[in-house]
Amino acid sequence: MLYSLGPAPPLNITVVERNVPFVSVRWTAPNDSNKDSYRYHVEWYRNRRLMDSTTVYNTEVTITRLAPGRNYTLTVTSDYNGKYSQPATISFTTGPCGGKLRAEGWLSSPGYPQYINSNTDCVWDIEAPLGHVVLLTVVDLHYYYNYSPLQCNWAWLAVGYNQTSQRDITMCHHSDVGRTIESPSNTLRVFYQVSSYFYRMRRFNVTLSSQDGCIPAQLKVVSYSPTSVTLSWIVPNDLNNAHLSFVSLFSSGKEIQNHTTKNKEITITGLSPDSSYSVSISSLCKGTESIPATIDVQTGPSPPMNLTVVEQDVGFAFVRWAAPNDPNKDSYTYHVIWYQHEYWINSRTVNGTEINITRLTNGENCTVSVTSSYGNKYSLPATITFTAVPCGGKVRAEGWLSSPGYPQNMYLYMDCVWDIEAPLGHVVVLTVVDLNYYYYYSSSQCSPNWLAVGYNQTSDRDVTMCRYSDVGRRIISTSNTLRLFYHAFYYDHAALLFNVTLSSQEAPSPSPSSAVTQVGTYTTVTESPSSVSTVKSTTHLTSTRGETTISTPDTTSQPGSSAITHTQVVATISTTTGVIKMKVNLKMTATNENYLQEMQNKNSTTYKEFVTKLEYEIFQSLKGVSENFSKLVILNLTAS
Description:
The chain is mainly beta. Helix content is about 5%, strand content about 50%. The protein is built from 2 helices and 48 strands. It has a 6-stranded mixed sheet with strand order 45-44-43-47-46-48. Strands 3, 4, 6, 7 and 8 form a 5-stranded antiparallel sheet that branches. A hairpin with a 2-residue loop joins strand 3 and strand 4. The chain starts with 10 loop residues before the first strand and ends with a strand. The model is unreliable at about 510-565 (pLDDT under 50).
């Protein structure tokens, strides 16, 4: 029997080149008869963890994306027709990242322009000749994610102004490309860090150079206003702050101001708003005036003028202002922010000089801030504070009443109370025309938004509504007043809209046949004027808690005199303490005698629909008196 042995392992495995972040490895093929047909499987590990692998058909490989200054183990296995040798192994340490460099040429991330995909921590010390400073200019800065302006957490390129400082300037945004940094001495430290957890920073490239230390460096704008600009700088060779600096201000190439100072900061005043200038600063160094450093500056726009609230209503205010008298005012945009209780409500940028601000909480103080903007410059804000219009009040029982801003949604806190009043001897009639809410409520829940009715000015939420099924509901007060509550609370963009009509009608006269003998008994009176075809049934609660209206099926009016019948309802009520029975006396008046006959037939649709609605309305009234009532079922309805 013949056995096929596997190939022999590679020989003489060696690292032939090493840099950051790669190594080149070479080996010799084994002395096998089929060695020219071998391929080689290469794997590399760090801390016994497989980092990557590749298969090659020659005896050399270059592996990349290695972390600097780390220990690795590499294995090479011969492969022939699916049979593998024992691995040949070599361990090595990658080259460190960083070191000392002259201030000339360029500096880039390891392996540039390849991306860095592993943990990297590098430090370079850059040195210029004595009497000179280091200039670093960012040519490329590439990252995987876009950081916010205040965040450079997981990867960054940083600069320390000397060899003992840490991260005086940190960069991780594309906006840093083109930035030039000047050291205050002849040394500059550069830091480069990439976290292996998020792999966000990928590569960088900067140029290095030097310049005379007598030339003002780090020239920058500290602040600006519409009529002034403040500048600061350093003179690297002026260690004792004794050198004079010569400051010249130019407009359209013409010098219009000049100053001499020993300070390294100056405020130039008397400038025009929203105007461009050039500033040149040189220093007297070793008895000779240095080459000047220059910077272009621009004053800011002036703030808006005459900020005024010209109109307001519940939930909104219309604000107007005048453009400042600046040369570019026609190109200005305005950034508007409004607050209540020092909390940001909303913001918007507009091109005109007016805005309608919304989402105001009724009756609360509101502050509006408007800032002029041109280019990348902003003015100081103009502000105005006012009180938002309260929601609610007294209204007559006529016309209509709706949620603030109707038919638009209200997305902030609203808590409104209206007292609706009818003439003496009349009652208020409220009809729900629209009631729309973003979410569907269960039958036992109206939170956080609701529309409610109190039967008088001292009651609270006798009837609460928040469902589309409440549309068409007609509610009648027990006196000439009715209180309406509206509560809307911003929650996940959920808001309640409503629209109701208000009217009044003469208060019904008490009927001896419908008189009650004790509190807790309910009298239902059903009436229909001859001009109305729908019979209305009103459930009245004698404990003065309120009155609710229900509608029975439409009927067609018939000519002739009104028909009257007396009806008694026998019902059972479930409470938390037991079951009780009650009787409700009804006096029914209608112009349609057929309807009354159907009401006496327990199998008729008219009768069943009426009983269902009557159960619901009586139960709602009972719940208004006490939460103990949990169920009501009508057992019998008989004519007398």
